[in-house]
């Protein structure tokens, strides 16, 4: 027979709960027992309080409310009996946290227990403090913990070190208290104490520049400890798979990485040791691979020798050949981080990286794709592009967009010839046209338009591709544009660079009509096709009645944009047929990045500067201008020279046009760079419209010089309440790698009081497979933005 419920033991309660056949029965048992526990707490039975709390903690672990036992935990902690303290501290760790004020009530009890000489009680207090200690508790008890760091008992010292780690994480300004004991604790031979001390020093160095400077003096001692681990071993009981204490090795290597970062002397001290660890560690077991990986990270993060960095990259190259997918993933991620600083060393492992593209694991193939795109340069662009195009044909759908965009960017940067660039872009559009970026169509049309010698070749290639497949919309748009511009070259049939292709006018028109009627064509694609048909009316020799009939059909189209185009083209045919040939001439496209564009931009800039700083025009110059204007009335010889003009800026034009003298334009507001991290840069440019001085237009420009695309980029802004902010839609959510097309977003800020402007920005994005969020405030905006 079961005992009365108020004296029910924990084992009996567990048995009753497990015997419940339904959840409703379980709730009934627990509610009944919780009622008896509450009654026992109210009666204040000190003998059975710890037993009732033990049952309540089990109920809490099952997910039922147990907050009414918090004060009982405090009573048990204050009890002199060890059995009560043990349950009290356990309950405090489970039921109390920083969000409840009750946890502050145990500060005095913990302080009293830490000052006692009973090791078990001190251990309980330290465990509770490290698990639930708030910032206030850490400040109040830091002195007591610092004293326990040098206690003779290794058990207490180990728990005190772990508690100190928690205190530094909660209150970094307490670092000065724990600096002196750490130097003595490094001489410990107890494994747990030494491992905890290394962790404590790591936390101190990460949070305090003074601590970092202090512990750099101990680099030789840390090097000695690690060398002892590698050569003779620390203790056999902590060796794993033949690797001597890998956990301690990894922790020391992380600390050395922090101490050697941007410090020449410390890096020089640890160079030989790192080479020894990298060459002597067994890689047949996972423990050895973990040590090697930390060694590689340390080598790449400090100012190590060039040969050592090559050794680190070679280790990652060996990781790529490992059968474990996790190790290969780690190697790919690490090589992606190193490709900017050690490009030539990473380049040696390019064949192995390309092999990883064929991995069935999508996470591995994605990492391999990012690294392969980062390895493309002018010397290997053709071979790498061929490999990437082969991967594009068989890669998963969620990787096609990244692969296609990467190939197009690489071709744009490193294309050896224009024809190769066009062929590469066409192949990408034919394979994964629906996954390319929005600017791919504009870029290709501009590229073709600037290569006059390739017009016939391009239009033939595009016509053949369009005849085979009209499902890839970007390809269809480029092809229809090219046919409309250079349709006459398509019908000539003379192109040495392609196979002979005989095309009739009716075939071209039928193909464009097929695009117009296809259910796969987007409205924009139909607009391209309709415009191409109208342009062909001036390029084909046959009758235009078929073209006019097709155009008239779309005059009643439901799509407003297409209908408007058709109506305008119909009007062109009916009323302005004599002007049609001139209006539909070939569009003169200037080659992107050509010297002509750069020269014209430079010349216009210099002209603008000279016009601002130029002196007043002399009389002959003004006379020449007037003579030029008088050509409409009579010969220049009969013109009368006017008297000298007033010496005002632009006086000649002002007097000629009889206009009032306008004030000079305001000086441009300087740009401002507000963010830079791992190749991602954020710049702000400012414009204040002259008509509305209280309005400020800020253009946010994000550029990316790293080897990986920045995806899912979101920029959010906030201003004080006295301002009005309007965020326009960004140009995209991807900032392409290696200096690709920047992403822009416009901010409209209304400042009616002309108060000093403060701007708070939040950036969220994915870079190198990691999700990043940055929140910062911009307070150094130019005064011209608000005055």
Automatic annotation (TrEMBL):
Any one Gene Ontology cellular component term annotated for this protein? synapse
* SMART domains linked: Alpha_adaptinC2
Q: Which domain of life is it from?
A: Eukaryota
Among its keywords, does the record have S-adenosyl-L-methionine?
no
The record's listing under Gene3D superfamilies reads: 2.60.40.1230, Leucine-rich Repeat Variant (1.25.10.10)
Family of the protein in this entry: Belongs to the adaptor complexes large subunit family.
Q: How does it sit in the membrane?
A: Peripheral membrane protein
Q: Domain GAE spans what residues?
A: 667-782
For this UniProt record, give its keywords in alphabetical order, as a comma-separated list.
Cytoplasmic vesicle, Golgi apparatus, Membrane, Protein transport, Transport
Question: Region Disordered: which residues?
Answer: 594-619
The family database entries (Pfam families) matched by this protein are listed as:
Adaptin_N, Alpha_adaptinC2
Give the gene symbol: AP1G2
Q: Which PROSITE patterns match?
A: GAE (PS50180)
User: Which Gene Ontology BP terms does the record give?
Assistant: intracellular protein transport; vesicle-mediated transport
Query: What name appears for this protein in its UniProt entry?
Result: AP-1 complex subunit gamma
Q: Known InterPro entries for this protein?
A: Adaptor_Complx_Large_Subunit (IPR050840), AP1_complex_gsu (IPR017107), ARM-like (IPR011989), ARM-type_fold (IPR016024), Clathrin/coatomer_adapt-like_N (IPR002553), Clathrin_a/b/g-adaptin_app_Ig (IPR008152), Clathrin_app_Ig-like_sf (IPR013041), GAE_dom (IPR008153)
Location of this chain's protein in the cell: Cytoplasmic vesicle membrane; Endomembrane system; Golgi apparatus
Q: Does the keyword Transport apply?
A: yes
């Amino acid at each position: 027979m079961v005992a009365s419920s108020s004296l029910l033991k924990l084992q009996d309660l567990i048995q009753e709960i497990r015997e419940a056949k339904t959840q409703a029965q379980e709730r009934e048992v627990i509610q009944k027992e919780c009622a008896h526990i509450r009654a026992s707490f109210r009666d204040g039975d000190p003998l059975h309080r710890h037993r009732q709390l033990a049952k309540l903690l089990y109920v809490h672990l099952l997910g039922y409310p147990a907050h009414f036992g918090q004060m009982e935990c405090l009573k048990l902690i204050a009890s002199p009996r060890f059995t009560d303290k043990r349950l009290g501290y356990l309950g405090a760790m489970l039921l109390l946290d920083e969000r409840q004020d009750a946890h502050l009530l145990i500060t005095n009890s913990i302080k009293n227990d830490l000052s006692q000489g009973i090791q078990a009680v001190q251990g309980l207090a330290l465990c509770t403090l490290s698990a639930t200690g708030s910032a206030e508790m850490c400040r109040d008890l830091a002195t007591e913990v610092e004293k326990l760091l040098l206690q003779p008992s290794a058990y207490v010292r180990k728990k005190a070190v772990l508690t100190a780690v928690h205190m530094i994480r909660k209150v970094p300004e307490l670092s000065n208290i724990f600096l002196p004991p750490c130097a003595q604790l490094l001489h410990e031979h107890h494994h747990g104490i030494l491992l905890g001390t290394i962790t404590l020093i790591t936390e101190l160095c990460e949070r305090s520049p003074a601590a970092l400077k202090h512990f750099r003096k101990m680099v030789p001692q840390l090097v000695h400890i690690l060398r002892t681990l590698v050569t003779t071993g620390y203790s056999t009981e902590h060796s794993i798979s033949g690797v001597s204490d890998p956990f301690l090795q990894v922790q020391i290597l992380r600390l050395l990485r922090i101490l050697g970062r941007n410090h020449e002397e410390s890096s020089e001290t640890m160079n030989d040791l790192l080479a020894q660890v990298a060459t002597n560690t067994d890689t047949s077991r996972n423990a050895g691979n973990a040590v090697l990986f930390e060694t590689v990270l340390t080598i790449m993060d400090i100012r190590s020798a060039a040969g050592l960095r090559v050794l680190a990259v070679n280790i990652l190259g060996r990781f790529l050949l490992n059968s474990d997918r996790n190790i290969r993933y780690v190697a790919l991620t690490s090589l992606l981080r190193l490709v900017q600083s050690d490009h030539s060393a990473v380049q040696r492992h390019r064949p192995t990286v390309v092999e990883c593209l064929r991995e069935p694991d999508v996470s591995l193939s994605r990492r391999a794709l990012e690294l392969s795109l980062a390895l493309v340069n002018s010397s290997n662009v053709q071979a790498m592009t061929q490999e990437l195009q082969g991967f594009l044909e068989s890669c998963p759908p969620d990787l096609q967009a990244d692969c296609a965009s990467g190939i197009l960017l690489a071709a744009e940067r490193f294309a050896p010839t224009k024809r190769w660039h066009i062929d590469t872009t066409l192949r990408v559009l034919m394979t994964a046209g629906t996954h390319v970026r929005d600017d791919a169509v504009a870029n290709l049309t501009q590229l073709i338009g600037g290569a006059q010698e390739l017009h016939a070749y391009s239009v033939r290639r595009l016509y053949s591709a369009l005849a085979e497949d009209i499902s890839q919309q970007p390809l269809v748009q480029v092809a229809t544009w090219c046919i409309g511009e250079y349709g006459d070259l398509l019908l000539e049939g003379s192109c040495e660079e392609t196979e002979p292709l005989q095309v009739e006018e009716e075939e071209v028109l039928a193909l464009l009509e097929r695009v117009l009627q296809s259910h796969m064509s987007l409205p924009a694609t139909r607009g391209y096709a309709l415009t191409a048909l109208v342009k062909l009316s001036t390029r084909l020799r046959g009758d235009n009645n078929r073209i006019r009939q097709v155009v008239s059909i779309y005059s009643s189209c439901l799509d407003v944009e297409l209908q408007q185009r058709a109506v305008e083209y119909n009007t062109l045919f009916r009323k302005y047929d004599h002007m049609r040939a001139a209006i539909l001439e070939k569009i003169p496209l200037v080659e992107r990045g050509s010297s002509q564009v750069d020269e014209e931009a430079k010349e216009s800039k210099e002209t603008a500067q000279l016009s601002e700083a130029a002196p007043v025009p002399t009389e002959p110059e003004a006379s020449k201008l007037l003579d030029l204007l008088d050509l409409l009335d009579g010969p220049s010889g009969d013109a009368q020279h006017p008297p000298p003009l007033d010496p005002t800026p632009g006086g000649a034009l002002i007097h000629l046009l009889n206009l009032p003298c306008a004030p000079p334009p305001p000086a441009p507001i300087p740009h401002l760079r507000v963010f830079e991290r791992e190749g991602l840069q954020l710049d702000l440019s400012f414009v204040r419209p002259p008509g509305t001085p209280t309005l400020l237009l800020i253009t946010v420009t994000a550029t990316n010089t790293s080897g990986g695309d920045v995806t899912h980029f979101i920029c959010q802004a906030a201003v004080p309440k006295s301002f009005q902010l309007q965020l326009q839609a960004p140009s995209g959510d991807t900032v392409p790698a290696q200096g690709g097309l920047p992403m822009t977003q416009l901010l409209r800020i209304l400042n009616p009081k002309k108060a000093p402007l403060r701007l708070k920005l939040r950036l969220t994005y994915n870079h190198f497979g990691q999700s990043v969020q940055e929140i910062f405030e911009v307070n150094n905006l130019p005064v011209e933005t608000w005055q």
